[in-house]
């Protein structure tokens, strides 16, 4: 995979698309005292030609809008409504509860935190169109609003094309920027004034390669960009960066790992700085990357460029939080006479960090292991197809 990076000026069209993507996340709403877990579909489309070995994790968000942690959460999946165009991989760790029905443990979801579940789907018969639907229901003891606990997810199979999906891990001091959470169970908060990597990944879960990726990062108040690839520019208006790599080539099942690190403000208080965002879009084919037979992503005609579009832009964005610890003992959080660098603050940590069961990364995806994602702001559990 070609991952050369060059400093380039971001095209106006790509910048506008990324800007639109970054403002798509609404702020949290709060319910009555207690947990309030809402089920919201994210992924809606699947590219024609996606094989079982590289099934796309169809993302569904479980977000706790309540003011108390949700404990012992599980989900019920009913996949019987999927038509012949769409197949699924049985989630590992789930208990079969009926024909094409499963019960899957999730664990705890802290207040104002989310879990993203990815149900692995693929194009079973090589045809596009209406792929049917599946239903998902969150089972939450003590939920204060059960009306938002279920969703029916319609699946549409689009033309054969690429399909970018974006993943990001919460920021902790001991995170490694490798596109997965394996071996990173310590979860040490970042000290005020400290830096840590933003572990993120941009996947191609489609059936065609894509040439050229633009991505942007927006940070909340209380944090700033400490380091970024040379092909990025600072986006001061939203406290973030915009990046372009017009030479990267992502084949189906491959991943791009941006190298970005974040600095926590010197005056940040212990807690959680919420709702950082990373968003990705495909660029036009790079002029230095010659067309290859059968690859529409490299074609030069305007008609072909119009036809090859992202199969599902709804999952091109991921959110992440920054967990902040206390200032070092005996040292003020802001040195005397020096101004702080941001608002900091954030909500106090109201629930324990979840344990990590599995991981996601380039080697996992390229090897064809299909994923059942469970993310506490991207906590993950791997699955494999039935034997």
UniProtKB/TrEMBL annotation:
One of its GO terms (biological process) is carbohydrate metabolic process. The keyword Membrane applies. The chain crosses the membrane at residues 353-375. The keyword Cell division does not apply. Keywords: Membrane, Signal, Transmembrane, Transmembrane helix. Residues 326-347 are annotated as: Disordered. Residues 1-31 form the signal peptide. It comes from the Bacteria. This is LPXTG-motif cell wall anchor domain-containing protein. It comes from Asanoa ishikariensis.
């Amino acid at each position: 995979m070609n991952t050369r990076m060059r400093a380039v000026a971001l095209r106006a069209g790509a910048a506008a698309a990324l800007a639109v993507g970054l403002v798509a996340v609404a702020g949290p709403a709060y319910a009555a005292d207690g947990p309030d877990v809402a089920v919201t579909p994210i992924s809606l489309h699947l590219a024609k030609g996606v094989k079982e070995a590289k099934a796309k994790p169809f993302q569904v968000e479980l977000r706790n809008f309540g003011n108390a942690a949700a404990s012992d959460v599980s989900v019920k999946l009913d996949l019987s409504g999927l038509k012949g165009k769409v197949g699924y991989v049985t989630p590992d760790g789930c208990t079969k509860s009926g024909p094409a029905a499963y019960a899957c443990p999730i664990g705890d979801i802290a207040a104002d935190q989310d879990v993203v579940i990815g149900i692995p789907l693929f194009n079973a018969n090589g045809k596009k169109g209406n792929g049917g639907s599946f239903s998902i229901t969150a089972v939450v003891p003590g939920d204060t609003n059960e009306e938002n606990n279920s969703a029916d997810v319609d699946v549409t199979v689009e033309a054969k094309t690429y399909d970018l999906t974006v993943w990001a891990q919460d920021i902790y001091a001991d995170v490694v920027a490798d596109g997965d959470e394996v071996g990173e169970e310590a979860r040490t908060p970042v000290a005020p004034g400290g830096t840590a990597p933003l572990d993120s990944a941009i996947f191609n879960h489609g059936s065609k390669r894509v040439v050229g990726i633009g991505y942007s990062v927006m940070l909340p108040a209380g944090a700033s960009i400490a380091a970024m690839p040379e092909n990025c520019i600072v986006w001061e208006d939203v406290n973030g960066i915009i990046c372009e790599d017009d030479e990267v080539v992502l084949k189906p099942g491959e991943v791009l790992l941006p190298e970005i690190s974040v600095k926590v403000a010197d005056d940040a208080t212990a807690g959680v700085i919420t709702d950082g965002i990373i968003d990705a879009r495909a660029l036009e084919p790079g002029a230095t990357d010659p067309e290859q037979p059968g690859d529409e992503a490299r074609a030069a005609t305007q008609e072909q460029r119009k036809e090859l579009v992202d199969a599902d832009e709804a999952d091109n964005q991921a959110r992440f939080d920054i967990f902040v610890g206390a200032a070092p003992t005996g040292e003020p959080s802001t040195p005397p006479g020096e101004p702080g660098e941001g608002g900091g603050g954030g909500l106090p940590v109201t629930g324990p960090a979840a344990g990590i069961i599995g991981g996601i990364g380039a080697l996992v995806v390229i090897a064809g292991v299909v994923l059942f994602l469970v993310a506490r702001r991207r906590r993950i559990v791997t699955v494999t197809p039935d034997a």
